[in-house]
Amino acid sequence: MRLFRLLLPALLGLACAAQAASPVERFNQGLHGLDGRFVQTVYDEQGVLRERSEGSVSLAAPRLFRWEYEQPFPQTIVADGDHVWIHDPDLEQVSVRRQALEEQSSPLAVLIDPAELDRQFDREDLGMADGLHWVRLTPKLDDGALTECRIGFDGDALATMLLVDQLGQRTEIAFSHWRRNPQFERDHFRFEPPPGTDVVGEQIERVEVRPLAD
């Protein structure tokens, strides 16, 4: 299962904190954008490996992201502030939907908007284990696909996320090569369907949303 199906009510949030605060808040401090790599593995409820994929991820405040699967099958997911675009090159298809619907109950709200994190999740500091400092997020509403998210920090760096859905399927995402507050290209969080690609879904009138660092 692609991360989109589990998380994509997702991908945004983080921005301030005190020196002696939790690892989430320390990671948060002065953060406007991130760019890095990921390796994602998905296991069924019996613990059997079902899928492994890898690619790149970019996020920018207030609610922009770009998630690109490179291996084993390409797929691009872009949130531009109004819409979430999902491009499957092998199918020559783009699906689009209003972003507001995709951001509900997202654990990745922890990456650019701490207020939204506290609104949607209960947070518990789990302390150190396996060399990482773990924080558990539990959705305050039980009507989403996600039942639990654990985030592991290596010092102040986000290292991994573990997610469990209502069917007991587990998704593990290992992050690396993070760059904080990079200078994104102006069109990095825009998406234009390639010529000849079928576009399926709902579009609304576009409202310009740009990274806070611009």
Q: Can you describe this structure?
A:
With 214 residues, the chain is mostly beta strands. It has a single domain, classed as outer membrane lipoprotein receptor (LolB), chain A (Clam), CATH 2.50.20. 10% of the residues lie in helices and 46% in strands. Strands 7-8-9-10-11-1-2-3-4-5-6-12 form a twelve-stranded mixed sheet. Strand 5 and strand 6 form a beta hairpin.
What structural category do the secondary elements indicate?
A: mainly beta
Characterize the largest beta sheet: strand count, sense, and whether it forms a barrel.
12 strands, mixed
In round numbers, the mean pLDDT is 81
- What order do the SSEs take from the amino end to the carboxyl end, as H and E? HHEEEEEEHHEEEEEE
Radius of gyration: 17 Å
Helix content: 10-25%
CATH topology: outer membrane lipoprotein receptor (LolB), chain A
CATH homologous superfamily designation: Lipoprotein localisation LolA/LolB/LppX
The second-level CATH architecture is Clam
Counting structural domains, the number is 1
The fraction of residues in strands falls at over 45%
So what's the overall shape? globular
Physical arrangement of strands within the biggest beta sheet: 7-8-9-10-11-1-2-3-4-5-6-12
What is this structure's SSE topology?
Blueprint: H1 3-7, H2 23-28, E1 33-43, E2 49-60, E3 64-71, E4 75-79, E5 83-88, E6 93-98, H3 99-102, H4 114-120, E7 121-129, E8 132-139, E9 146-154, E10 157-165, E11 170-180, E12 198-201
Parallel strand pairs: 6-12
Antiparallel strand pairs: 1-2, 1-11, 2-3, 3-4, 4-5, 5-6, 7-8, 8-9, 9-10, 10-11
